[in-house]
Please model this.
Amino acid sequence: MELELRFFATYREIAGEKTVFREWADGATVGDVLDDLAEEHPDMELFEDDGSIRDFITVMKNGKDVAHLEGRETDLADGDALSIFPPVAGG
Model:
């Protein structure tokens, strides 16, 4: 299945692109995609030591925060978009 990955702020700099279209196996979850990204871009620091998504990182599937869905276990389907936001500071 093809997914659209959207990177924001410092994650865009780390990934080197704003938007990437990539293939994953059918049945992939948000955790599978983030695991692959963490391996490719360790500077993103996506996970806590226990493997959970860091609290201050926002991952959205088609505009919905995965923290309010099934977190890492959120299922993905062909054509879904994942937006990944790093921590934001300032005011």
User: Anything to note?
Assistant: The chain is about 20% helix and 25% strand. The first strand starts at residue 2 and ends at 7. The radius of gyration is 12 Å.
